[in-house]
Design the sequence.
């Protein structure tokens, strides 16, 4: 099967700083790749390169076989992005925000369908019609997830999705992710959370100073071994 | 196109949800309507006053007919009788009052020397003149840019600051599409409001439907487009909303306030107008000198201008009206070079201001509006010229009475020439203003788009 | 505590490059406006002084003439510019420069700068007052809008409060700090103005000018205080810097642009004034058929003649020691001038009523308060203009009546004779004495009180609002 997400010698330099050093990576459908690393290791840079928000210095990123830099709009039909803090228009309701995002992606849903997506993402049904300004961080994130599901993305790009969520919300999030991946959605997730990575990931990668220094399938390690490995790389 | 409609619709939702912007738009609508009301009321007031003047004249004639029951000496009538030179506004004046409030819109003329009468001022409350007119042109030139700034200072920065931009751009939408849709919605609001106000104003002022309507709309629309160009230019810098607000307000202040006032200083210095003061003093000296000159000499000089009266009787009496009016006329003649220089100086000053107006699109637009409405300095100078011709006509009417010693009868009052002048629209100047405006608009868009193209949209 | 916060704000402001750039620009504008204003003042003043001297000499050097000829020859009154008008031109651009003074009629004050300019002049003039009233507040808004919001956004406000300061102390500290920064911009310009005033013809009316300048500076100090406190209060109450900025800019537009114009225009609409033609016709009508019964002028003249005969016990005009024409002329002038005065006073009252709306609006809008105060102190406001008109009319009346008196004393047959040239040299010329500060202050009570009320009200109510605002 061809890779749904691919990096070929992907490199990003800023004046006086190497942000990402020749990344090579392939993700198959249904795979969940968790990228571990400290702040500033290059995780967000990688995600932004896949989103086309920044241009690579060398190499290329591909989504579903399409080069990101060349098809900046086309690739966005195949991917969904959920930032650490999902921010939405505060004066629009959850439903309206979801309707905007999914219709921008080219999907026109009825209100009941939109409600179903929100409920499936875990948003309490009575909250859907309220203004987003009244939502908690977790609730906003659920709208983000609903939008990802609603646009039927084949790749999810997640940037620290569980930071700042309470354990219950974090757990619900993991379950949803596993459900999506079982349906064939590939997930690329940058995180600090080693245990969550072990739990939801099929592979983990460790990134240090812009370089992917280690990649392991999660089946070969338990959580403690993964933590030891991580700390070893950080020294 | 579907995407565009969608983004447009969501812009409408955002706009609807923003109480501040709704309030501002409503305020501007109210200000515009008040401006139209004020302008039309002001012009109606001037028309009413102008319409009352003939009645004042008739009243005075009745008074003179009592005072001179029989045939009178024409010199007496010419001395007392007030003739009114009327400067009627065009229908357009209601929309751009220009200088019609500080310049007199009628002149009371007697047969005496013209130069002493031509510069009389009307009763004006200087406090009001200083505050200026709250007409539709003011709303369009001063206040519309402020609405455009309020709508556009966070064109992109608001999404960035609210953190929504990453999520939006993770959809198959380009930043350009987003900006264009936002711009289009704002443009629709502003141009819609402008068109609505203009339509109400044009209808209320009962403006004749001709090419000038298009010119007015083009000036107003072009001016709004210019300000949207400035908004794009500032948004292209991709700075914070606060910075954008400051930058845009700075641009407003520079273009609407500072440049015109600096230009005003410059124009006054570059084209010093020979003072009217010297002119009045000169005219008085010449006229009053007439009393002390030998009558023969005065008449000889007069007859070089009016040879047709050369054969009239030599003046032997101590006082004769025809001699009196002859030296009044000679007084005007002696002040004529100063008067011409004064009028030319003012015209040149205005022409220079018009040439330099490209420095501020606000100025181009305002001058264009005023030219269209015929309410600027050239219109007043044209009125003064027309009043001068009227004074000539009065003299031509009276001179046969004076020199041929024809008695002035009650029936002759009705034969006196009357005057009415309506300053025409100076469409040429309005086109020139539009040309300047379009050039600045094109320049600002070119600059903005070049900047926007040059760099990627930053997400955070 | 207040001092150390003030010190921190002051330093922070000085180190802010944007503020430094803006304030340098503003300072340059202020200095330029001072110099340009001074130049314009000097030019116009020289022109008018010269013209006044010229007409005075012309008047004094008349040949032997009949006094009524002289009354028709008349003279001109030029309005000298007020000493401080280079700081605030006020109404000067819209008020005339010269009025022709002659027998029988009151002429308009003509040749205002606005009439000689196109609509360019309606965009406003670059003057010190304009910069101080409109632009400095904008600078202060940019300086202050983040006073609390930025500290809250950065979390430093909690830090300050955890040191034991109160919100109110923080607010006062900021107000004092920003005040120092503002003074850096304004004081040099006023210093220059003072210097120019000193270098000019400082001899005449020295103390009056200096006290006007001092009050001018004081007024603006209070105005800036109001703006700073207002901006700090808004910043304390706002949720975000952006909201504070937008609110403050909205207030600025409303206060500096829209309200002044709207109130003046509304006032003018509410109390329509008569035109010059109507005024003249009404004066003429009343002077002819006026209060003195309905007898026309000729009959009144006949009655006057009869009274003279009776007074001097004669039956023939030839035997009268006075000229009947001269006495009639004096009577007529006295009567028509009285009528004119009444109508002129009514017109002035109408204008004052028109302006009252914007005067009272100074209670709502500090900008309108300082505008009136500033013009009044500079001697360029409506009251000063009316004062000049009245002085010119009073001189005209005295002059014409003096000449009528001369004619009356010439006795019978005065028309055939002339008075010799020395007579005219003995007549005092028009010299305008601008009213003193005390007189001007009488017209400025309301705006001055309004400004003070704003200052006190904001320091009291506004700071209470700060107390109640969010800390983190």
Sequence:
């Amino acid at each position: 099967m061809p890779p749904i997400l691919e990096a070929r010698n992907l490199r990003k330099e800023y004046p006086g700083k190497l942000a990402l050093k020749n990344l090579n990576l392939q993700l198959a459908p249904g795979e969940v790749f968790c990228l571990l690393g400290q702040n500033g290791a290059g995780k967000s840079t990688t995600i932004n390169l896949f989103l086309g928000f920044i241009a690579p210095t060398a190499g290329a990123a591909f989504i579903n076989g399409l080069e990101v830099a060349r098809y900046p709009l086309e690739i966005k039909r195949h991917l969904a992005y959920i930032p650490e803090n999902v921010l939405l228009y505060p004066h629009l309701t959850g439903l309206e925000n979801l309707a905007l995002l999914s219709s921008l992606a080219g999907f026109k849903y009825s209100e009941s369908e939109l409600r179903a997506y929100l409920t499936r993402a875990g948003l309490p049904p009575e909250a859907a019609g309220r203004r987003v300004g009244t939502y908690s961080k977790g609730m906003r994130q659920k709208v983000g997830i609903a939008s990802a599901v609603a646009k039927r993305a084949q790749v999810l790009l997640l940037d620290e999705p569980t930071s700042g969520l309470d354990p219950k919300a974090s757990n619900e999030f993991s379950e949803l992710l596993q459900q999506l991946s079982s349906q064939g959605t590939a997930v690329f997730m940058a995180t600090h959370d080693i245990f969550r990575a072990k739990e939801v990931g099929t592979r983990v990668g460790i990134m240090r100073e812009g370089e992917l220094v280690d990649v392991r399938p999660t089946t070969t390690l338990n959580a403690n071994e993964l933590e030891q490995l991580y700390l070893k790389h950080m020294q | 196109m579907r995407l565009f409609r969608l983004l447009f619709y969501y812009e409408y939702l955002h706009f609807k949800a923003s109480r501040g912007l709704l309030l501002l738009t409503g305020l501007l609508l109210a200000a515009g309507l008040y401006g139209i009301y004020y302008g039309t009321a002001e012009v109606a007031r001037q028309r009413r006053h102008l319409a009352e003047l003939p009645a004042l004249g008739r009243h005075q004639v009745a008074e003179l007919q009592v005072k001179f029951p029989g045939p009178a000496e024409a010199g007496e009538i010419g001395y007392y009788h007030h003739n009114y030179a009327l400067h009627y506004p065009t229908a357009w004046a209601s929309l751009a009052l220009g200088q019609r409030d500080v310049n007199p819109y009628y002149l009371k003329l007697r047969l005496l020397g013209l130069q002493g009468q031509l510069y009389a001022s009307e009763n004006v409350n200087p406090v009001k003149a200083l505050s200026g007119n709250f007409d539709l042109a003011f709303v369009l030139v001063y206040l519309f840019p402020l609405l455009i700034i309020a709508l556009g200072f966070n064109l992109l920065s608001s999404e960035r600051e609210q953190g929504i931009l990453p999520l939006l751009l993770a959809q198959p939408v380009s930043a350009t599409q987003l900006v264009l849709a936002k711009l289009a919605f704002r443009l629709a609001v502003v141009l819609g409001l402008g068109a609505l106000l203009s339509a109400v104003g044009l209808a209320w002022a009962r403006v004749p439907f001709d090419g000038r309507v298009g010119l007015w709309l083009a000036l107003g629309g072009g001016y709004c487009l210019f300000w949207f160009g400035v908004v794009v230019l500032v948004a292209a810098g991709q700075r914070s909303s606060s910075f954008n607000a400051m930058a845009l307000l700075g641009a407003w202040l520079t273009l609407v306030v500072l440049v015109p006032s600096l230009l005003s200083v410059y124009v006054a210095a570059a084209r010093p107008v020979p003072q009217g003061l010297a002119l009045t003093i000169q005219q008085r000296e010449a006229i009053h000198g007439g009393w002390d000159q030998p009558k023969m000499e005065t008449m000889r000089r007069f007859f070089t201008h009016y040879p047709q009266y050369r054969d009239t009787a030599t003046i032997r009496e101590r006082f004769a009206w025809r001699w009196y009016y002859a030296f009044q006329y000679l007084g005007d003649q002696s002040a004529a070079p100063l008067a011409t220089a004064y009028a030319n100086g003012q015209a040149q000053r205005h022409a220079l201001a018009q040439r330099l107006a490209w420095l501020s699109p606000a100025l181009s637009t305002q001058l264009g509006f005023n030219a269209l409405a015929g309410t600027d300095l050239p219109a007043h100078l044209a009125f003064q010229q027309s009043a001068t011709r009227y004074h000539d006509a009065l003299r031509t009417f009276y001179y046969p009475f004076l020199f041929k010693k024809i008695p002035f009868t009650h029936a002759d009052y009705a034969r006196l020439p009357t005057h009415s002048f309506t300053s025409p629209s100076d469409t040429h100047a309005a086109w020139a203003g539009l040309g300047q405006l379009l050039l600045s608009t094109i320049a600002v868009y070119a600059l903005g788009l070049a900047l926007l193209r040059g760099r990627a949209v930053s997400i955070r | 505590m207040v001092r150390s916060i003030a010190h921190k704000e002051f330093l922070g402001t000085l180190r802010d490059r944007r503020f430094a750039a803006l304030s340098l620009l503003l300072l340059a504008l202020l200095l330029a406006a001072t110099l340009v204003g001074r130049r314009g003042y000097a030019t116009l003043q020289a022109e008018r002084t010269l013209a006044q001297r010229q007409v005075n000499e012309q008047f004094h050097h008349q040949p032997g003439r009949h006094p009524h000829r002289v009354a028709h020859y008349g003279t001109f009154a030029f309005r000298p510019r007020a000493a401080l008008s280079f700081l605030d031109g006020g109404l000067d651009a819209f008020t005339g420069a010269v009025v022709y003074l002659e027998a029988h009629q009151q002429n308009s004050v003509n040749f205002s700068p606005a009439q000689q300019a196109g609509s360019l002049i309606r965009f406003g003039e670059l003057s010190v007052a304009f910069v101080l009233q409109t632009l400095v507040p904008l600078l202060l808004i940019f300086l202050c809008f983040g006073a609390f919001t930025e500290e809250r956004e950065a979390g430093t406000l909690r830090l300050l409060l955890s040191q034991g300061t109160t919100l109110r102390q923080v607010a006062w500290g900021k107000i004092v700090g920003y005040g120092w920064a503002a003074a850096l911009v304004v004081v040099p310009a006023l210093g220059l103005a003072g210097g120019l005033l000193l270098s000019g013809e400082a001899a005449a009316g020295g103390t009056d000018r200096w006290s006007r300048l001092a009050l001018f500076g004081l007024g603006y100090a209070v105005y800036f205080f109001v703006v700073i406190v207002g901006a700090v209060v808004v910043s304390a109450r706002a949720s975000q810097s952006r909201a504070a900025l937008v609110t403050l800019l909205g207030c600025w537009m409303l206060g500096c642009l829209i309200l002044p114009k709207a109130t003046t225009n509304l006032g003018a609409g509410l109390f329509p004034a008569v035109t010059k033609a109507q005024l003249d016709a009404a004066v003429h009508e009343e002077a002819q058929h006026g209060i003195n019964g309905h007898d026309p002028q000729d009959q009144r003249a006949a009655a006057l003649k009869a009274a003279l005969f009776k007074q001097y016990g004669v039956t023939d005009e030839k035997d009268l020691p006075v000229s009947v024409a001269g006495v009639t002329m004096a009577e007529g002038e006295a009567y028509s001038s009285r009528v004119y005065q009444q109508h002129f006073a009514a017109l002035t009252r109408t204008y004052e009523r028109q302006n009252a709306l914007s005067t009272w609006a100074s209670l709502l809008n500090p900008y309108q308060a300082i505008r009136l105060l500033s013009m009044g102190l500079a001697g360029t406001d409506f009251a000063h203009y009316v004062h000049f008109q009245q002085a010119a009319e009073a001189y005209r009346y005295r002059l014409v009546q003096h000449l009528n008196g001369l004619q009356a004393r010439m006795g019978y047959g005065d028309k055939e004779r002339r008075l010799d040239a020395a007579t005219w040299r003995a007549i005092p010329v028009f010299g305008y004495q601008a009213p003193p500060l005390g007189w001007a202050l009488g017209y400025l009570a309301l705006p001055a009180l309004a400004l003070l009320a704003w200052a006190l009200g904001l320091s009291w109510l506004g700071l209470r609002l700060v107390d109640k605002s969010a800390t983190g």
Notes: Residues 155 and 472 of chain C are 7 Å apart (CA to CA). The beta strands of chain C are 75-78, 98-101, 106-110. Chain C has 17 helices and three strands. The two ends of chain C are 20 Å apart (CA to CA).
